[in-house]
TrEMBL record:
Example of a GO MF term: transferase activity
Protein name per the record: Glycosyl transferase
Organism: Enterococcus wangshanyuanii
Pfam families named among the record's database cross-references: Glycos_transf_2
InterPro entries documented for this protein: Glyco_trans_2-like, Glycosyltransf_2, Nucleotide-diphossugar_trans
Superkingdom, taxonomy of origin: Bacteria
């Protein structure tokens, strides 16, 4: 099996389901080309079941698995920032510990970087599923070219975060991940784009992402409404959009958060997905 100089970066916390984590790891180990490092940040104390799963992969992967343990939960932005700094490769592929990679994801993205030395970040489309990957709820297609991505970023996140591969040097140059509840990734992307770095999305569906009722619940209510408005203001201030862009997406954000969960799910599928 060919090994490539790529670090797969993930963060895990105590509420993660061990069976989902296993599926994520196995999809990584089933890649057509293998990353020479998987870096896992333990964001605070975990459950015994998760520790057992991580130990299993430590024994199996030896020095290909790097584990960083944080004594207390720091939140996703801080955990990922620590992970970026400690990855040993210049190319870093992000992954969530409950999603599943298509078996050629890393190969296709790695070759895109070999073909374009100016590229700083690349993502792809996703298939959203619930339960098993055969139970498809929706697909999420993203803008493809750098200019399309820049325009899209003025109102919406231009990358599916669990699909991106990026250059460590570029991410650190714009300040790395920063805490911004629920929007840590979007905040990083707009800073990269504003600084002039080049982005791209591949048209393929390279990650299966978990969705469904749990996700729709998280995207609503006051607990998501207020942090979301604060985050969108911060993204507007540091991104490429106008005040009109900020105002219009804020109005939509309020409406989505106040919808009943069932209606919110329908809105996501019909209006925000393909």
């Amino acid at each position: 099996m060919q090994t490539i100089p790529v670090s797969v970066l993930m963060s895990v916390y105590m509420k993660e389901k061990p069976e989902y984590f296993t599926q994520t790891m196995e999809s990584t180990l089933a890649q057509s080309v293998q990353p020479d490092e998987i870096l896992l940040v333990e964001d605070g104390p975990l459950t015994e079941e998760l520790y057992e799963k991580i130990q299993y992969y430590r024994d199996r992967l030896e020095d290909r698995l790097t584990v960083i343990s944080l004594k207390e939960n720091q939140g996703l932005g801080t955990a990922l920032a620590i992970g970026v700094k400690n990855c040993r490769n210049e190319l870093i592929a992000r992954m969530d510990t409950d999603d599943i990679m298509a078996d050629d994801r890393l190969e296709k993205q790695y070759h895109a970087f070999l073909e374009n030395s100016d590229l700083a970040i690349i993502g792809s489309n996703i298939i959203e599923f619930e339960g098993t990957i055969d139970n498809v709820l929706a697909t999420k297609k993203m803008p493809l070219t750098n200019e399309e991505i820049r325009q899209f970023s003025k109102k919406r996140n231009p990358f599916n975060h669990m699909t991106v591969m990026y250059k460590k040097e570029a991410v650190i140059a714009v300040g790395n991940y920063l805490p911004l509840q629920g929007f840590e990734d979007y905040y990083l992307w707009v800073r990269l784009l504003k600084a002039g770095y080049e982005g791209r999305n591949l048209p393929e569906f390279l990650v299966y992402a978990r969705a469904g009722t749990e996700m729709y619940n998280r995207r609503g209510g006051l607990n998501y409404l207020m942090p979301g408005l604060k985050a969108r203001k911060k993204i507007y201030q540091e991104g490429l959009g106008s005040f009109t862009d900020f105002f219009s997406v804020s109005v939509i954000h309020v409406g989505i958060c106040l919808m009943p969960t069932q209606l919110r799910g329908k809105f996501y599928k019909r209006m925000l997905r393909k």
